[in-house]
Design a protein that fits this description.
Length: 238
């Protein structure tokens, strides 16, 4: 082996790195879409919950309203009886009854007011969620178009790099090809080449013996780091 072999390996490893960067950009572009989609699903679920809540609240309101109507009728009847009461005892009894109904009426009116307030708040939230869902539907379509265009560009770049890599691979000897194939299998998502600095692997800090270090530095031996298994190159990454 000679230094030319290591130069080719290093170039291949650098190109592979570039591909990984483009792939990670594709992933991050696609994440933009999935983030908005996830948020929209959450909002749609929330909207369903709010609508159910409003329905229940309104049902409660109608019940309370009926109750109020009944109490008002009772109060009217008591008031009629009051005007017809002949004894002071009767008068006092009717008065007592009216006090009770009035208190019930006040309580129901207050409750109805609270229920109305709750309804208003729910309607406001429903409105906001609906607007968000409508607005974000348009943005989502825009983002999807943008992401498709951006990812197509990234894919084009990857294709160009792969073509360049193929040229380098074609120039390799059968042994070189087999070394590169093994490295790619072992490190599909990382750099596969490392260097020595003062006898230490720059990737995992594992030490190499003096004798071996000298052979690696001269490029006369193909050696992998005993710990991280990367190819030890005499040439440094630029
Ligand atoms: Zn190592």
């Amino acid at each position: 082996m000679n230094l030319e072999f290591f130069a080719q390996m290093l170039e291949l490893d650098n190109l592979k790195s570039k591909i990984l960067t483009h792939q990670s950009q594709i992933q991050s572009n696609s994440n933009r879409v999935s983030t908005v989609e996830k948020f929209r699903v959450q909002s749609a679920e929330e909207l369903t919950r709010l609508k159910k809540n409003l329905e229940d609240t309104h049902h409660h309101f109608l019940q309370q309203e009926k109750e109020l109507h009944k109490v008002e009728q009772l109060l009217t009847r008591s008031s009629e009886r009051q005007s017809q009461a002949s004894t002071s005892q009767e008068c006092a009894a009717v008065e007592q009854e009216m006090k009770l109904f009035s208190a019930q009426k006040d309580k129901l009116e207050n409750e109805l007011f609270d229920v109305l307030e709750t309804e208003e708040k729910l309607k406001k939230s429903i409105n906001e969620k609906t607007q968000f869902l409508e607005g974000s539907e348009k943005s989502l379509l825009q983002i999807k178009d943008e992401v498709i265009a951006l990812n197509n560009k990234e894919e084009d770049e990857i294709k160009k790099i792969q073509e360049r890599m193929q040229l380098y691979i074609n120039e390799l000897s059968p042994t070189g090809k087999s070394i590169w194939t093994d490295l790619c299998k072992r490190f599909p998502k990382e750099n596969a080449i490392t260097f020595l600095q003062n006898g230490t692997c720059q990737n995992c800090r594992s030490h190499v013996g003096r004798n071996l270090e000298s052979q690696i530095e001269k490029g006369t031996i193909i050696e992998h780091c005993s710990q991280c298994k990367r190819l030890l190159s005499p040439l440094k990454r630029v």
